[in-house]
Amino acid sequence: MKKLTIIGSGNMGLALAKGLVKSGLYKASSITLTRRNLGGLSEYASQGFITSNNNAEAVKDADIIVLAVLPQQVNKVLDEVKPSINPESQLFTSVVSGVTCKNIKEKLYPNLQVVRVMPNTAIAIQQSMTCFATDNASEENLSLVKEMFDTVGVSIQIQEELMTSATALCACGIAFFLRSIRAASQGGVEVGFHAHDALMMAAQTAKGAADLLLQLASHPEREIDKVTSPKGCTIAGLNEMEHNGFSSAMIKGIKTSAKIAGELYVKE
Ligand SMILES: NC(=O)C1=CN([C@@H]2O[C@H](COP(=O)(O)OP(=O)(O)OC[C@H]3O[C@@H](n4cnc5c(N)ncnc54)[C@H](OP(=O)(O)O)[C@@H]3O)[C@@H](O)[C@H]2O)C=CC1
Ligand SMILES: O=C(O)[C@@H]1CCC=N1
């Protein structure tokens, strides 16, 4: 079993650690989690994870390193770990938005193999849509990354220039779909359901809609046509939403997130 060190165990780092252990691919004892406030990891230490607030020490024995700090925290962390990194034997992966493989190699070593990965928080329940890209990692290391992220959802390799777009569509996308489910539930309350029932009903309906596309390899408009009876209530509601900019709002939101994702990291 490979040894993994996650530098920056916040929302994303911990979701990844939980998903990998749940999948059975990793034992908690083969994952080291770091953050500055070690107290915030005590729950994870009691579950068998190794925890540390010393990044330089934590990366020494790792086969795979996952960088999961915020973009504005990257430069300091890379300076800290550089003396402990072995570019010949270690694989460096990063989930940080807006930081390229080249940015990391420029800060660490030009021959370090780097894979940039963009998962989403559904990784904690093995349902992530994960995109990854590289400009120098070997096929063997790419297979390793694919195996790792396929156990916690679905992963695809993409061109690196599309990573900020993948961030908007898939990583930020979790929040966009959650907000639409929340909005649907609020509508459900207005038409008569208690809030907790409305939320469960909206979430299960969203899950069914997503599975219609994924399991039947169908297209949204094909499935929508099956719901919209002539002169019916669905088309009335759907058209009302479109008159108010429903599709347009989602498209504009994704474009804005993709733009901002590309501006998050500032090189030193
Ligand atoms: N949240 C998401 O859905 C997704 C996030 N990402 C990317 O993941 C990265 C992390 O995001 P997110 O998890 O949301 O952010 P969080 O703020 O939740 O996590 C960042 C973690 O890094 C730790 N940290 C900060 N500085 C250091 C340091 N010097 N050494 C060790 N740990 C440190 C922080 O803990 P402490 O302050 O205790 O050190 C914190 O727990 C970002 O780059 C983001 O772009 C990518 C995909 C999805
Ligand atoms: O909001 C953010 O910047 C991070 C990256 C993608 C999801 N969360």
Which structural traits does this protein have?
268 residues; ProC C-terminal domain-like fold; eight-stranded mixed beta sheet; 12 helices; elongated; binds (2S)-3,4-dihydro-2H-pyrrole-2-carboxylic acid
Bound compounds:
NADPH dihydro-nicotinamide-adenine-dinucleotide phosphate, (2S)-3,4-dihydro-2H-pyrrole-2-carboxylic acid
The CATH first-level class of the largest domain comes to Alpha Beta
Please give the order of strands in the largest beta sheet.
3-2-1-4-5-6-7-8
Shape: elongated
Largest sheet: 8 strands, mixed
Helix content: 40-55%
Please state the CA-atom Rg, rounded to the nearest Å. 21 Å
Classification by helices and strands: alpha/beta
Strand content: 5-15%
Can you describe this structure?
Strands 3-2-1-4-5-6-7-8 form an eight-stranded mixed sheet, sandwiched between helices. Helix 7 packs across helix 12 and helix 8 crosses helix 9. Helix 5 links the parallel strand 5 and strand 6. The protein contains twelve helices and eight strands. The two termini are 36 Å apart. It is of the alpha/beta class and 268 residues long. It is 50% helix and 14% strand. The chain folds into two domains: 155 residues, Rossmann fold, CATH 3.40.50.720; 89 residues, ProC C-terminal domain-like fold, CATH 1.10.3730. The site of (2S)-3,4-dihydro-2H-pyrrole-2-carboxylic acid has 4 residues, from helix 7.
